[in-house]
Amino acid sequence: MSFRAPVPEYEFLLNQIVGYGQVAATPKFAEASGDLTSAILTEAGKLCDTVMAPLQRAGDLQPAHLENGVLRSSPGFAAGWTAIAEGGWIGMSAPEEHGGMALPMALTTCVNEMMSGACLSLQLAPLMSQGQIEALAHHASDAMKALYLPKLISGEWAGTMNLTEAQAGSDVGALASKAQANGDGTYAVSGQKIFISWGDNDFCSNICHLVLARLPDGVPGTKGISLFLVPKYLPDENGDAGVTNDLSVVSLEHKMGLHGSPTCVMQYDGAKGWLVGREHGGMAAMFTMMNNARLGVGGQGIGVGEAAYQQALGYALERRQGRIAHERKETLSESGTIVDHADVRRMLMSMKADLFAARAIMLSCAVSIDMQAATGAADWAARAAFLTPISKVFGTDTGISVADTGVQVHGGMGFIEETGAAQFLRDVRVTSIYEGTNGIQAMDLVGRKMLDGGDMANRLMDEIEAQAERARATHPNMAESVWQACESLREATDWLVAQDRMNDRFAGAVPYLRAFARVLGGHFHLAAAMADLGGPREKLARFYITRLLPEHAGLLAHAQAGADGAYALTLEELAGQS
Question: Does 256 map to a domain?
């Protein structure tokens, strides 16, 4: 089964579930409604189905590579990039004054997710540019915006982000890269960065690197870091790519997956760069792009999960194995394909139900970002901030789980590379690691995101319970299950907030976040059941609420166990030495 962008699912979620109508009702996004929204999703879907999806296997089998120091991209990727750029998809949410479409993040999120399902290796390239566009739009000087944004938005140039160093992974403040003022408004940037997605390509005339480095008077830690824009080619007097800057790709990483996406080791040897934002304000500028990038990575997980689900379903519909008797409408029938096995149905239903829940959480977060942008309201900003780590973690965990289950549905053929099932799992596995590991995201949720004493968490739970009360008229059993789960979540939240030792929160952060996502998933599935009485979404909601939502109980027990048990074994005992 070839990949098909799930456009009807996006339209249902936007129109019926996540409140996109609020976004379209604002003056800022008034044009992004009705027929335009449908047209955007449909056209993006065609690009994904016909242009990007055929590149999925090529990127895996013929990876990007260095040839005499020159990066060569996978076959077809250059044409794919051109189609993405010419369609305006890179600059969907970028400012109109620089050539963007200024569309809501909710629509960009839908498009990025479907592109991830079609070919994640290629989708990473425009996602990197989108993040840089956002950072420059918020923090760069007017002159820098005028020079770089139009070229980044058009796809003539591409962008990257350079944070990680060998000794400074999640601990960004430990970076060693240096920057020295040249005396002419530019800086000499030196250091080595690793894990740079699409650090180079052979289809753009310039690559623009956002690089974190420390000025001589920068204090230790993150507070002393500045952000610099360091292009591969220095712009000439006409603003075109000119002479080569003092930077290079040292090597490409050999990875478990995402072979079509070159992950570069970058070397800067006094490369000329320009300060973005204020001195020592690099982390604030970088977080502008990282927060929305985390939402985008959650969408990557969901997109790959969607592709893995579609392939698993197609295989299950065709694979004949044994004679499976089952009852339908009081008659016994036999199809002979594995889709009629009860356990295969369980796997497929679980995959589909979790994808719906993760996608709804992600789009609810995107709607919150749009409402904050349209209204400036602090409440929307707080809501978006709270939902971002949940969207990232649950989206990527779901993608990994669904891809893994997809291999299982294929049985022995899932372990054979030619089917492509394993590629989905290999490609998506990194999404729970980059843009902040899922453990760090969960710690952020129970730490910084609860400095309000749990206020935003409780407001979300109030919404969940209010809808459950409304649903009692049509779906009493499902409504009661969601309501009770939410009450358990509220009790666990109160327990977390009451802990003086932050490590007690951190030890249960991952199960707490997953439990919160489970309850949010029940909430959105319940909304779908109310909007689709007697329809397939009501049936899927019943499956999720009956079979998957109950996982919250065990997760919350784990979340409230504290940290002591995690340290019960000594290091020697962990190593098996008594």
Answer: yes
Which residue in 113, 134, 165, 435 is the catalytic one? 435
How far, in Å, CA of 117 to CA of 120, rounded?
6
What is the SS3 assignment for 271?
A: strand
The pTM of the whole model exceeds 0.90: yes
Domain-located, residue 125? yes
Interacting residues of 271 by C-beta distance below 8 A, sequence separation 6+: 188, 189, 190, 230, 245, 246, 247
**pLDDT on residue 174:** 83
Question: Is 341 domain-assigned?
Answer: no
pLDDT score, position 1: 59
Residue 418, amino acid: E
Predicted local confidence at residue 333, as pLDDT:
44
Asked if 505 and 444 count as a contact pair (C-beta separation under 8 A), the reply is no
Residues 143 and 194 in one domain: no
519, 371: one domain: yes
C-alpha to C-alpha distance for 516 and 114, rounded to whole angstroms: 25
Q: Evaluate whether residue 315 is within a structural domain.
A: no
Phi/psi region, residue 189 (left: phi>0; alpha: psi -120 to 50; beta: rest), is: beta
Q: Strand, helix or coil at 478?
A: helix
At 493 the pLDDT is 98
Q: Which two tokens stand for residue 540?
A: 């899927």
The number of folded domains in the chain is 3
Contacts of 331 (CB under 8 A, 6+ apart): none
Q: What is the 3-state secondary structure (H, E, C) of 146-157?
A: HHHHHHHHHCCE
Q: Which two tokens stand for residue 380?
A: 């929307």
Average pLDDT per run of 10 along the chain, which is 578 residues long?
Answer: 92 97 96 92 98 97 94 97 97 96 97 98 97 95 97 98 85 88 97 96 97 94 94 96 96 97 97 96 83 92 98 94 58 68 96 98 98 97 97 98 98 96 98 95 96 97 98 98 98 97 97 98 98 97 98 98 96 85
Structural domain for 274, as ranges: 158-285
178 and 105, same domain (yes or no) = no
Closest C-alpha to 393, from 463, 445, 464: 445
Question: Would residue 435 show up in a list of annotated catalytic residues for this protein?
Answer: yes
Choose among 315, 299, 283, 244: nearest CA to 69.
244
Per-residue pLDDT, 330: 37
Q: Which residues contact 326 (CB under 8 A, 6 or more apart)?
A: 332, 333, 334, 340, 342
Say yes or no: 363 and 490 in one domain.
Answer: yes
